[in-house]
Amino acid sequence: MTPRTQISDALKRKEARYTGVYLLLGERDGEPLAYIGEGEDISDRIRNHDARKEWWTNAILIVSSANNLNKAHVKYLEARLVEEARTIGRIALENGNAPARPSLSEAAQANMEAFLENILMVLPALRIDSFLERKRSTAALIPDVSRDAGTEFELFLKKENIRASALLLNGEFIVEARSMARKAWVGTREDKTSYWKLFDELVEQGVLTDAGTHRIFKTNYAFSSTSAAGAIVNGRSTAGPLAWKVKGTEKTYRDWEAEKLASQA
């Protein structure tokens, strides 16, 4: 991964001349944008983009260390990454039509699916969450073991009679399906956190559905923080660690977290 300001040095690496796929990431008109491509010499492709595309600010080059990917492999990976990005819908793509998957043997296809799985595991570690599915099925959310009561939280807006429940699981703060949220965003739309944009996206995607006086989470949804989750439920920026409380108590998430850290120390 390299910022555009260091692209010249990055493309001097021998790996940059390998056969692989690449992602260009940036913004256009204030909105995140990406381009997914492939090449037998990805450094050559990126140099071409450097001259023609003004909007991108970071590049990710994906190759195998042994340089044993061929043209069919990377065309398959390109097609699958475009499919994943469009299915999840968290970032717009500059790609035109979705590329068709090339014909691969059953074994080669299985290998590329495993390679893709590794890519999707590594990208979040680079803080690239465009391929992270935030929706969570009930089966994936609730394991067969009993839940620790300390990881279940709720947020209640008394005046609006809005109640939401959430679960902290594997580092994700997941608001559960059938939780309630405010009917519309009532906070400022100049909020630097852009939670209002997320609210609009969840309405557009059908995650938040109209229920008359309020909205309902149609599915479980994983947030990056308690504040993001609280803002969507409340319809405005919210101090999440204070708004969310341990289920059935008055203990805030902040106090619960402080006690947990103290006990570990």
Radius of gyration: 22 Å
Please state roughly what percent of the residues sit in beta strands, choosing from under 5%, 5-15%, 15-25%, 25-35%, 35-45% or over 45%. Answer: 15-25%
Look at the structure and give the mean pLDDT.
86
Amino- and carboxy-terminal Cα gap? 36 Å
Helix content: 25-40%
3D shape: elongated
What low-confidence regions span 5 or more consecutive residues with pLDDT below 50?
Answer: 138-150
Largest sheet: 6 strands, antiparallel
H and E order: EHEEHEHEHEHEEEEHEEEHHEH
Give the neighbour order of strands across the main sheet. 6-13-9-8-7-14
Structural class: alpha+beta
Number of strands: 14
The tally of structural domains comes to 2
- Tally of DSSP helical segments: 9
What does this protein look like?
The chain is an alpha+beta fold and 265 residues long. It is built from 9 helices and 14 strands. It folds into 2 domains: 2-126, GIY-YIG endonuclease, CATH 3.40.1440.10; 136-264, no CATH class. The protein has a 6-stranded antiparallel beta sheet. Helix 3 packs across helix 4 (106-122). Mean pLDDT is 86; it is low at 138-150.
